[in-house]
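Blackboard transcription, Thursday session:
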Amino acid sequence: MSSFMRTNKTDNYNFIEQNRFNHNAVVQPLLTDLYQITMAYAYWKSGKTDNVAVFDLFFRTNPFHGEFTIFAGLEECLKFLDNFRYSDSDMEYLKQTLDANIEDEFYEYLRNLTAKDITLYAIEEGSVAFPRVPIIKIEGPLIIAQLLETTLLTLVNYASLMATNSARYRMVAGKNIQLLEFGLRRAQGPDGGLSASKYAYIGGFDGTSNVLAGKLFNIPVKGTHAHAYITSFSGISDLKTRVLRHKQTGITGDLLETALKHRNNLSNVLDISTEESSEGELAAMVSFAIAFPDVFMALVDTYDVKRSGLLNFCAVALALNDLGYRAVGIRIDSGDLAYLSCLARETFETIAERFKIPWFNQLTIVASNDINEDTILSLNEQGHKIDCFGIGTHLVTCQRQPALGCVYKLVEINEQARIKLSQDVEKVTMPGSKNAYRLYSTDGHALIDLLQKVTESPPEVGQKVLCRHPFQESKRAYVIPSRVEPLYKVYWKDGRICQDLPTLEQVREKVQRSLKTVRNDHKRTLNPTPYKVAVSDDLYNFIHDLWLQNAPIGELS
Amino acid sequence: MSSFMRTNKTDNYNFIEQNRFNHNAVVQPLLTDLYQITMAYAYWKSGKTDNVAVFDLFFRTNPFHGEFTIFAGLEECLKFLDNFRYSDSDMEYLKQTLDANIEDEFYEYLRNLTAKDITLYAIEEGSVAFPRVPIIKIEGPLIIAQLLETTLLTLVNYASLMATNSARYRMVAGKNIQLLEFGLRRAQGPDGGLSASKYAYIGGFDGTSNVLAGKLFNIPVKGTHAHAYITSFSGISDLKTRVLRHKQTGITGDLLETALKHRNNLSNVLDISTEESSEGELAAMVSFAIAFPDVFMALVDTYDVKRSGLLNFCAVALALNDLGYRAVGIRIDSGDLAYLSCLARETFETIAERFKIPWFNQLTIVASNDINEDTILSLNEQGHKIDCFGIGTHLVTCQRQPALGCVYKLVEINEQARIKLSQDVEKVTMPGSKNAYRLYSTDGHALIDLLQKVTESPPEVGQKVLCRHPFQESKRAYVIPSRVEPLYKVYWKDGRICQDLPTLEQVREKVQRSLKTVRNDHKRTLNPTPYKVAVSDDLYNFIHDLWLQNAPIGELS
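(Written on the board underneath:)
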């Protein structure tokens, strides 16, 4: 399918690096909740500077009533660790802001603090992730590990939510539909818009309308014109230029005149009165075609798709054809998208046949009016001829669930496991430092994610592994994996990033590869089957022993 | 009411200016949709460089099923205009990205483009605004006016949505409740979080947990500790320091010992077994109190509010009292907030009376578990004793409606009015450059917003004004205003900001002042009365004449 307003994507210019700093200027140690800093002082004051902690970053429920989540945001987290250092003005601000009794030595301590003693384990960015399996594990001195919490959550939550949302759009749209992110104006401000564009691309969108995102992240950018362009022309007299050189011969032709001629002719073929169609719209389209003869795409719903927009577009496209150019397509931004897209396709087919212009049938139909996952599902059911969706508000705000609830929980301190109990059993944390494995079946599908104590040996291919529900004693099963994937890699240790980080493209491909390993019944929109997350027998017993030790006296627990 | 972890807010340090640039690094001309730039080229190519346009920026519906909106984001828009200039790397990126046929002269034109020929009218930032009354009006050369669209929408949409959302929380909470924004970790990334903090403050919140927002915008920052702090202590043996000097005498006391003594005593008074309460929690609270004896506030729900948290807190607070300090209060982050807050208040009252410590009754109770507007309404109905809400996810994501639908419509070009028709009458635009007035009753309430053609004389105090529904002929009424407020001021003209801009504090005060002029029935949560927006008789006739001229032939319009 042809892409509209195709951009010349180059791989090697250096805008990305050049601009990265600006974009990340706000990702700094003060981008955190105040209580992290007050806790840091209290830890420091109570002599816990050398305590070593393990924190798990995980979510408890998949978003959008789904049964999977795409993990994203890891690279940003690593850059944050790499840059973690309080500036002089940070120190000055904190001294003026925090309780006046805080000791100066603490500020000295903060001034020298970096993330060099932290080890960060994570699953691969772009992987499918499931509830309660930590996606990031932080080990290191309690104070610095605690100070990372809010920023890591901020960087992971929205990134993963957007990547998941876009991946879901991609699934319902199917792989042959082009998906474009059009959400900048409805995002949470400028940087919200940039994050949306980036993670929509990772999740499976093909491009964005956001030019700065294109520049910063090397994402394809797309777009044609708005209704304002059409309404800025009230008639043919507004048209200052009407000529265009033939693409091959270079001979000047009158595009307006040719378009008018085709319009009269088409009026009969399509049974649409030229009187009903807008002259301003025709003038606007002619002018736009003169500006972009090679990539002409027009918005056809400013006045009336059926009575005006389609007729004018086809007239201009035929005129372009006479001058050796191929139009790209139309965009429909209102009305009944199923009906109008079928009408447009039918019109293109009629013209292709009548005028012997086979490519006319291949014109791209873009739709872009308040589209969400359900709209696409409904359009699929009704039948439609749309090639490309432009999606804004619902995509970037993640309307169905505008926040992913990642949490960051202390699970071990000085090699002692910690458990956070809760009356809500789903909120009980998995104590201790853990490893996570994904076990696969012979057909390559993921069977189960298994959490183990770090001291246990990994599950082995072909050997049966006892997988237990973390809280329900009776729920357990033996699994014989055909493949065992250790989910964690060390990404940050000894003050540096210790993996080659994938490019945005590679993360984007990882998403699709990872989704392929997930069975369809886990991925479907309606009543998906929950994917199983289990604990080893050792970890099960460990959890429940610790639970018992910590259970309050006098209450049935 | 006492504020917890009070920050020393200073008015005159220069972090704000120092940091502003970083925060706004992404608000640049490329932060736009690609189609603005392709349209710019097509306008340029078709000789429309000198066309003068008027665009209206407005919304069609109030968010959150309400009947008012707070306008915010104006200052950011003005800074954007002030900085509007394509950089060399922008030009390089555009040349590589846009259609290869674009003429070099266009890039020259872009390179020299600034917003100096634009005039920006707006209503005051922080004002109440209503559907279809433009909140910003842009006049100037078509191309540059068009190029501003997406960025202005991005800057206004989320800012106004957040300010409106926070103002609604403020209304349901009442003016005596402290409201804190805790949403950074659930916002749309780093900058989404910063915008949330800023506009929550403008809308009526008292502070934020976001330290960087505090530093950048001089907003009070608040916070104590998380559950992790409590769980990092497993018992009294974890407590390295237990002594604290008396606030007045300076004599060292053993805070732990005193707290343990009080705990035993309280155990009888409150009828809670000390065996049921957590020693780790007690140790954590003692250590926190030693770090922050003047501003001690503790999270009491890590194990069990009733059986553990309250007992431990009160014991530590009484021990602090013995050493001359006053505790600040507690935070409850789970469970039945109505019940637990009443239980806590009752406990504080009992202790105040029993131990003759009147201020104990004044301890602050903060609640912070997944709170939204409805939760507060329900708590109000049930009765609660909460002094302060910490609100995160629902506030910053504006869950009930995560986007405000501001649009930017061409209403005039070269002094010719433009109308955008639509089958949906609500989407028909108000053509031409307009003035807007707010008419007030004798009791100071806003009666109606009136749109007029710019050529009309303003409505006069004491004179009857014919106010018409823009689309329904029969709906009209005479209004005799006691006060007439012209809604627009010129904020940007001749390349500079031409009003003294209010501080954040002043905008925040404006919100409350402006809301006071709105009748309660427009502001109530349940079935609010729509506020009336009218057009003058002249404008009514003008709209409908133009509509008729533009109506398609052959259709009943």
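Lecturer's comment: The domain at 224-386 of chain A is CATH 3.20.20 (TIM Barrel).
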